[in-house]
Amino acid sequence: AYDPETDVIYLKSNESPEVDRLERVNDQDESGPSADGRQIYMTHCAGCHKEDRSGEEPLYPSLVGLRLRMTESGAWHRIREGGGKM
Fold this sequence. Notes:
Helix content: 25-40%
Oligomer: single chain
C-alpha cells in the first residue's frame, strides 16, 4: 500500500518465499482493465485466485460468485486499493 500524504510505501512481510512486483494498473489507457479484462486477470490475479477464480482458501479467496458478496464499486475499490494479501 502507498500513502501519498506521507510518501510511505508499506510492504507485507511473511515467511513464505515468493516474488512480488508492484505495478500500477491504469484503466484509462489501451492496456487498462477495460481493454482486455481476462488478460489483466491472468497477469495480475490468477497467480493467487487461480485461472478458474476458485482461489485457495483461506489464503486466497474464491472470486466465484463475487457479485453476491461485494458490490461492483467495492470490488473496484479492493482492486485499486488492495486489502488482505492484496
